[in-house]
Design brief:
Layout (H helix, E strand, L loop, with lengths): L17 H11 L22 E8 L12 H14 L3 H5 L2 H5 L10 H6 L11 H27 L8 E6 L8 H9 L6 E6 L5 H15 L4 E9 H4 L9 H9 L2 E9 L11 E10 L7 E6 L2 E6 L1 H20 L13 E4 L4 H11 L7 H10 L6 H16 L5 E8 L3 E9 L8 H4 L2
Parallel strand pairs: 2-3, 2-4, 9-10
Antiparallel strand pairs: 1-5, 1-6, 4-5, 6-11, 7-8, 10-11
Helix pairs in contact: 2-10, 6-7, 11-12, 13-14
The protein binds malonyl-coenzyme A.
Length: about 425
């Protein structure tokens, strides 16, 4: 397997010297054996971190698309704004134009509403029924994503040693990961970890934990699954006094994604896609109020202060990226020479990031496309974006070798993971990048 550090060929490349030293120094701190065969041009001291081997995604069947029972409220909100003449964009806009969401997949449907009319009554206690509905629907959705990832990985499910499951919309004991493990036929010795309520940083948190496991246990094969179903927990009759709820209706959706992480791949069976080079999580003090969700007796309530969030991104994102990427020698390539895997929280979040870093529009094209085609699925969205970035690289012959995964979540938290595309797999065609 090539550990591509490009020496030319058009891709932006950290130069020998400061950047390379930074890379070697950082990676040497990990406990991993080098993945590169000797003579590949890498320093013998160069160590590699956990490698992301395979990923797959799945969305639930399109039970209710954008034309869901939520539509009336959203349309009414547009109409009222139109009458007030508040916003020119709103006058011309449809819901899709406002949020960037054209299609979504939702588990909430009319059958569920008939079965649980209390979901329509904001005063009726409905949280237990909602959580039970999630518990009934989520395992099969998550298992479907994981089964695809395992099939693509090429080794038997029984070879999975660890399961890291992340969700912000399920709460039960034992956690849903147990049911998923059983559906997948995982070993009864698999070590399970559930990461709860990280919201839009759910995937980043799970990847971070998986990377730590892979670094400390080189034979571990970690199945990471992220699943959320905000349509069930967060569905409420629209209330004009609560605009965040209306926006949530137009934006949020359901989905699940899975990846398999491990070190020292057994080629040719395991063909890695990305190397996970470093992770960082920065939480800005005193900003807990900016993005939050509350469990109420009638479901999950979500709240976001968009102006404060935009200001936080503007003031902090570059320093967070520098903190993660400068030691690796990647930051000096320039933000526009990296590939970007960004959680598309909403148009305002991507616009802010683009403006703060002066990113060219195509850098967030994968994020915008996922938002458009799937909505904001909370945690799993980032895996969909990763999948889309890979697809685009293959189709458009993208040549960025170094990249960054970014998500923003409650805290207010900024998570960054530095990625390197493996030349042995789909992201980069090998010969072009070989040294
Ligand atoms: C909704 C929008 C697409 C609308 O864009 P427009 O360009 O049409 O208009 P705009 O940005 O000026 O916003 C219009 C009005 O809606 C308000 N507004 C926007 N988003 C809001 C929100 N989430 N809650 C409450 N109000 C909100 C604005 O303050 C403004 O109010 P006024 O008219 O009074 O000035 C965008 O604002 C947006 O992307 N908002 C963020 C969406 C979001 O909440 N995403 C989830 C992120 S959470 C996430 O991803 C991480 C996590 O879960 O932790």
């Amino acid at each position: 397997m090539a550990m591509a550090r490009r020496s030319g060929g058009g891709g932006a490349t950290p130069q020998r010297g400061e950047g390379e030293e930074g890379l070697s120094h950082h990676l040497a701190e990990s406990t991993l054996m080098p993945l590169a065969p000797s003579g590949s041009g890498h320093s013998k001291k160069t160590r590699r971190s956990g490698t992301l081997c395979h990923l797959a995604r799945s969305a639930p069947p399109p039970l209710v698309l954008a034309e869901s029972v939520c539509d009336e409220g959203v349309r009414r909100e547009c109409h009222d704004k139109e009458e007030e003449g508040v916003r020119e964009e709103r006058r011309a806009g449809t819901r899709g134009e406002m949020t960037g969401v054209k299609k979504r997949y939702l588990q909430m449907n009319e059958d569920l509403l008939r079965e649980h009319p209390e979901f329509l009554d904001p005063a009726a206690p409905s949280l237990p029924a909602r959580l039970a509905s999630v518990a009934a629907a989520m395992p099969s959705l998550a298992a479907a994503a994981a089964a695809k990832a395992i099939a693509e990985w090429g080794r038997p499910a029984g070879d999975i040693t660890h399961l890291v499951f992340s969700t912000s919309t399920s709460a039960q004991v034992p956690a849903i990961d147990l049911r998923i493990a059983s559906l997948l036929g995982l070993s009864d010795t698999v070590k399970r970890t559930t990461i709860a309520f990280q919201a839009c940083t759910g995937t980043s948190s799970a990847f971070r934990v998986a990377m730590d496991i892979a670094e400390s246990n080189r034979v571990a094969r970690i199945l990471v699954i992220c699943a959320d179903m905000l349509s069930i927990n967060g569905f409420h009759v629209p209330n004009e006094a609560h605009p965040a709820g209306i926006i949530a209706h137009a934006l949020f959706s359901d989905g699940a994604g899975a990846v398999i992480v491990g070190a020292e791949p057994q080629e040719p069976v395991e063909l890695p896609i990305f190397e996970m080079l470093s992770t960082s999580q920065v939480t800005i003090p005193g900003t807990e109020h900016v993005a939050s969700t509350q469990f109420t007796t009638s479901g999950i309530d979500y709240s976001l202060l968009p102006d404060e969030l935009v200001a936080l991104i503007d003031r902090n994102v570059e320093r967070c990226l520098d903190g993660a990427l400068v030691p690796l020698g990647i930051a000096k390539l320039g933000w526009n020479n990296l590939f970007w895997v960004v959680h598309p929280g909403g148009p305002i979040i991507m616009d802010s990031l683009e403006a703060a870093l002066k990113l060219e529009p195509e850098k967030l094209a994968a994020s915008r496309q996922v938002l458009s085609e799937y909505g904001n699925m909370t945690g799993p969205t980032l895996i969909f974006v990763l999948d889309e970035v890979i697809r685009r690289h293959r189709q458009l012959d993208g040549d960025e070798e170094w990249g960054v995964m970014v998500s923003f979540g409650p805290g207010f938290t900024i998570e960054v993971m530095a990625l390197h595309a493996c030349s042995s797999n789909k992201m980069n065609p090998g010969p072009k990048n070989a040294i």
